[in-house]
Design brief:
Length: 218
């Protein structure tokens, strides 16, 4: 399965190896997010400038050497959530692996910021207008975008709901997700029926832990 993931047109050769080593690495990104969110206790969405975290995510260029150690794919699931970093009460940073043709339900983000960066393959994001209270009508699509490797996208409940899926028939896709604050992990979130707009509350499942990192609440 690993071989099918590494699709990025990374440059080869000794010069390029040195070039890659000099790049802003995933661990640099995680360090900078932790530094930005600070050391103190809790945080609220309003305390976070999402544009800053988006700019950090854009600065990172996907390199499988950084993230393959977090990679685990359960072929029986639509997608597998792997823990990269749990910044207690500040953020969750996850690596998601999407099986071919599979995707998430339509969901909200529990009043948090969600920054997603495609690391390998391609993902389609469908954004929906939030349902009106008491409405029993199909959710209306606001926008649909295909995100290629290294694309960064952002969503919050102010923007709407979304569904993410892997449009490939034979390749997995990999993405990096930054949730701040980690409200969905700590308190749950909602999924929605696209035909009726009806919501259901979901308690977040634990993320798969790498051998190096405990999953914590992710
Ligand atoms: Fe999402």
């Amino acid at each position: 399965m690993l071989a099918s993931v590494v699709q990025l047109p990374l440059p080869q050769g000794p010069l390029c190896d040195r070039f890659i080593l000099a790049q802003y690495a995933l661990e640099d990104l995680v360090r900078d997010i932790k530094a930005y969110l600070g050391e103190s206790g809790g945080i609220d969405s309003a305390d976070v400038d999402e544009a800053h975290i988006i700019s950090l995510a854009r600065k990172y260029i996907s390199n499988p050497n950084d993230w393959l150690r977090y990679f685990y794919n359960d072929p029986s699931k639509n997608y597998t959530r792997n823990a990269i970093e749990n910044i207690n009460r500040k953020a969750n940073i996850l690596l998601l692996v999407w099986n071919p043709g599979k995707g998430s339900p339509i969901h909200d983000h529990a009043n948090a910021h969600c920054i997603m960066k495609v690391l390998a393959g391609e993902l389609t994001e469908t954004v929906y207008y939030p349902p009106q209270d008491g409405d029993n009508t199909p959710l209306e699509v606001k926008q649909q975008t295909r995100h290629q490797a290294n694309a960064v996208t952002y969503i919050s409940d102010d923007i709407g709901l979304h569904r993410v899926h892997n449009p490939s028939s034979n390749q997995v896709a990999v993405s990096l997700h930054i949730y701040t604050p980690p409200n969905a992990a700590d308190h749950g979130y909602h999924i929605f029926d696209g035909a009726t707009g009806k919501s259901s509350f979901v308690c977040q499942a634990r993320a798969h832990a790498s051998p190096e990192k405990p999953a914590g609440q992710a």
